[in-house]
């Protein structure tokens, strides 16, 4: 799970005192993460913002299955992202699994969205089971974002309790 | 026993095979609080913790260097987060983000709190002040939050009402004691947060 130590990364920023933490490996990683910081942006060719609306850290992406016009022009991490996104994959999971900063993953994902290779998986609350005599002309349910979807929150609650 | 045969007019959208795996919907929970208050411990108690870092261009630095032949030399700051995922049934995934509490990390909080289910503010009775900033922040953003007071052995014990008063927390905001090292206790904190978010989602006054 631990991607390994980043050699020579200066421990700074966090100012975490040498407290006796239960998980030395983790803490070491956290400190090391403050290390070399410029290089990843070479990958994004210097842009720090995707075009279009910024993608949320838990946006779920799915490959469209379309073939890239010029595969050679994709950055290596983008090819990996496309491979992983054959199944739905959240941005945060991509960043963690590919060991790249979230900001970098977000820019790369933005490009793949723009070129139609990835799609955002939209959440729409499952429609309530229509009652037998339901009028087909009934107004469509308003779309509710997941964090405000009471049915979804209730499911989460039940399952958390049962864990 | 009613027939389970589905002759309902519209079967749920048949997903492509590969879509059966992976999350279908993601919810965010923030875990905030001062240094050493138990953020990492809490995230680790309820999920498998994984490395995740982010970095932000320091755009307010006077002379942002522009593209140099496509290779950027920008000043960035890197932050490591505690990152965990709880995978529930039917593709529902709850993502946990433990974030440093200092103001200079608030650029991340802005990112994380948008559309978040809610936040857990961890507090340590020996340093209650350290949780003021987090509480203010989530109050301002309208993010549902609960205050979980970590019970460290060498700390005096206070009851939630005293802590509520000391921190000047709204009566409707849950305040509970916890031991972030214990899965059951950490889970209770999350349950209390989801209950709270559900109450707010049911009532009015929650932002979109
Ligand atoms: N007694 C007790 N100790 C705890 C509890 N939660 C955390 N600890 C201990 O407190 C120390 C700090 O916990 P962390 O989880 O690393 O705290 P943190 O908020 O992630 O710290 P930083 O990332 O450095 O800001 C560790 O040694 C934990 O074992 C608790 O509920 N009770
Ligand atoms: Mg920590």
From TrEMBL, chain A:
Sequence ranges of Basic and acidic residues compositional bias: 11-27
Region (Disordered): 1-27
Domain of life where this protein originates: Bacteria
Name assigned to this protein: DUF742 domain-containing protein
TrEMBL record, chain B:
Organism superkingdom: Bacteria
Organism, as annotated: Actinomadura syzygii
PANTHER family membership: ATP/GTP-BINDING PROTEIN-RELATED, GLIDING MOTILITY PROTEIN MGLA
MF terms in GO: ATP binding; GTP binding; hydrolase activity
CDD domains referenced in this protein's UniProt entry, alphabetically: Ras_like_GTPase
Family statement drawn from the similarity comment of this UniProt entry: Belongs to the GPN-loop GTPase family.
Entry-linked InterPro entries: Gliding_Motility_GTPase, Gpn, P-loop_NTPase
Protein's name according to its UniProt entry: ATP-binding protein
Keyword terms of this UniProt record: ATP-binding, GTP-binding, Hydrolase, Nucleotide-binding
Xref: Pfam families: ATP_bind_1 (PF03029)
The keyword Endoplasmic reticulum is annotated on this UniProt entry: no
């Amino acid at each position: 799970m631990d991607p390994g130590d980043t050699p020579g990364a200066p421990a700074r920023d966090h100012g975490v005192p040498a407290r006796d933490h239960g998980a030395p490996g983790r803490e070491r990683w956290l400190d090391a993460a403050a290390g070399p910081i410029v290089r990843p942006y070479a990958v994004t060719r210097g842009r720090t913002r995707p075009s279009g609306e910024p993608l949320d850290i838990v946006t779920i992406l799915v490959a469209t299955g379309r073939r890239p016009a010029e595969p050679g022009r994709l950055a290596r991490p983008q090819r990996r992202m496309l491979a992983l996104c054959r199944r739905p994959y959240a941005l945060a999971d991509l960043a963690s699994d590919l060991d790249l900063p979230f900001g970098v993953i977000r820019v790369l994902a933005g490009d793949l969205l723009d070129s139609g290779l990835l799609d955002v998986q939209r959440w729409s609350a499952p429609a309530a089971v229509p009652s037998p005599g339901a009028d087909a002309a009934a107004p469509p349910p308003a779309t509710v974002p997941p964090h405000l979807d009471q049915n979804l929150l209730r499911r989460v609650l039940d399952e958390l309790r049962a864990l | 026993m009613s027939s389970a045969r589905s002759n309902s007019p519209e079967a749920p959208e048949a997903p492509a095979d590969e879509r059966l795996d992976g999350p279908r919907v993601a919810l965010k929970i923030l875990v905030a609080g001062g240094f050493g208050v138990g953020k990492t411990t809490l995230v680790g108690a309820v999920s498998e913790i994984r490395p995740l870092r982010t970095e932000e261009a320091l755009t307010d630095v006077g002379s942002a260097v522009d593209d140099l032949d496509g290779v950027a030399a920008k000043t960035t700051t890197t932050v490591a987060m505690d990152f965990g995922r709880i995978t529930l049934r039917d593709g529902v995934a709850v993502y946990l983000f433990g974030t440093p509490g200092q103001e200079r990390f608030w650029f991340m909080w802005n990112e994380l709190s948008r559309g978040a289910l809610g936040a857990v503010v961890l507090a340590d009775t020996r340093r209650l002040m350290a949780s003021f900033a987090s509480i203010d922040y989530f109050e301002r953003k309208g993010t549902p939050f609960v205050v979980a007071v970590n019970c460290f052995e060498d700390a005096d014990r206070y009851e939630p009402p005293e802590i509520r008063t000391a921190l000047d927390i709204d009566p409707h905001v849950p305040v509970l004691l916890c031991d972030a090292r214990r899965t059951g206790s950490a889970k209770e904190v999350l349950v209390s947060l989801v209950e709270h978010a559900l109450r707010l989602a049911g009532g009015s006054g929650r932002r979109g």
